[in-house]
Amino acid sequence: MPPIMAFDKKDDEFPAKLTGQVVICSIIAAFGGLMFGYDIGISGGVTSMDDFLEKFFPKVYVRKHRAKEDNYCKYDNQMLQLFTSSLYLAAIVCCFFASKCCKRFGRKITIQLASLFFFIGVILNAAAMNLPMLIIGRLCLGAGVGFGNQAVPLFISEIAPAKYRGGLNILFQMLITIGILCANIVNYLTSKMHPHGWRFSLGGAAVPAIFLGLGSFLIVETPTSLIERGQKEQGKQALRKIRGVYDVEKEYQEILQATELAQQIKKPFRNLMNKSSRPQLICGTILQIFQQFTGINVIMFYAPVLFQTMGFGGKASLLSAIVTGMVNVVSTIVAILGVDKFGRRVLLIEAAVQMLVAQCVTGGILAVHLKATNVIPKNYAYFVVVLICIFVSGFAWSWGPLGWLIPSEIFPLETRTAGFFFAVSMNMICTFIIAQAFLTMLCHMRSGIFFFFAVCIVIMGSFAYLFLPETKGIPIDEMNERAWKKHWFWKRYFDDDSAP
User: What percentage of the chain carries pLDDT values higher than 90?
Assistant: First the structure.
């Protein structure tokens, strides 16, 4: 496939072109993000539909329509929260098996398994006749999320030229945001289709699952994975194909050297506990904690529920969710264009300030104007929607995509799949906690929940400023030498690489 873009060779870069093969493979793989995003967006809209609540959660349905029911507590139901969070419970477990699958069988087959799990889950959810069937379907979707989120960012990081790795990897987050937007639009349309609109909403996830499954047969396995599994000549040929140049010897030798070093590590999970592995492990996992404790999934999971709490009608709340979804998509484009130009840290720090202001002002408005049984004045309700859009935009060009990008590029090959497993599973654990607890937290903390997340944002912004090294433009297998060993704090962990 002919190259579509080239960059000037520098002394510290490998010869490479941004080939059509790399772009197409990245887009196909990133459809794993579309499946993930669609599921994030679809659950909040479905749980606000009366037909769905009446069939599976009749107590919530009755409480929702009581005139004097507390605004903050209408949806406080553990089983309703389990409908959303069960997916992430399964993802936590499946991340471990996905990391093993990535290493033993390759990134490509792991992506194919993700699409298969997702398709099974979609069928069970769309055809659900009772709550157990619904939850089992969500668990299958969780397996798909675990396999997809483990394999896709690694796949893209390993095939992308260093200069464009950030932008290409954010395709994954871009497709997540598009998936959320598509889910919001589908929910708005199906909310008018009584009594089975929710089935069409849940069944719509079959589209990205099928696309990823079929498209996965067209993508190439990463050279790193091929070489790692002893297929050295195939790895070199794959490297030539994705780089668009014949002379790949320098990069091939570096991958080969990294692979040989990795093969000496028989127990990569234990090796993660070594002193020299702690900086990457700490930063990779803590970024996932921070990403979820921005409060973003409160917005993405429960946007329609949140907007209904503020007094919007059912259709108006779904429409407001579409607006925030569109902001999410557009802002992610900013990340794609800016991450390899401005770097990772600048975007993270700027967005922390932006999200902090939005959360505090939103919490203040709700504290003053939204009581237990009243409806917030319309002008303030619309202002809250604007503030949520400001919050979402900051997240979408920073902590959202970079929360996946940075952990996928900072680990050396010998601990890459194991390290990324810890990062992904930490993301799923925190997502599960937020999804399972938010509606109860909203009921008890009321508007104070926004200040809770504001405190978290202060902590994470400070961490990014003080402890996160810049990884822009650094080849993935040179990250230790050029990022971690030169960082003011983390360099002390490399004084003795063998230290436990």
Answer: 35
CB 422 within 8 Å of CB 285: yes
Q: Could you tell me which of 282, 297, 334 has the C-alpha nearest to residue 467?
A: 282
Distance CA(247)–CA(17), nearest Å, equals 12
* C-alpha distance from residue 439 to each of 67, 131, 199 (Å): 19, 19, 23
Report the alpha-carbon distance of residue 119 to residue 137 in Å, rounded. Answer: 10
CB 401 within 8 A of CB 332: yes
pLDDT tens digits along 359-399: 999 889 888 887 766 777 878 888 888 898 999 999 999 99
Tell me how crowded residue 462 is: count the other CB atoms within 10 A of its CB. Answer: 12
Of 15-24, 179-188, 232-241, least confident by mean pLDDT is 15-24
The CA distance from 49 to 192, in Å, is 10
Intra-chain end-to-end CA distance of the chain, in Å: 47
What is the C-alpha to C-alpha distance for residues 490 and 372, in angstroms, rounded to an integer? Answer: 49
Give the separation between CA 185 and CA 182, rounded to whole angstroms. 5
Q: What is the pLDDT of residues 46-82, one digit of tens each?
A: 987 889 999 999 988 888 776 566 767 777 788 888 8
pTM of the model: 0.78
**Per-domain residue ranges of the chain:** 20-219+265-491
Structure tokens at 225: 């994975």
The confidence band for 10, taking pLDDT boundaries of 50, 70 and 90, is very low
CATH 1.20.1250.20 fits 20-219+265-491, yes or no: yes
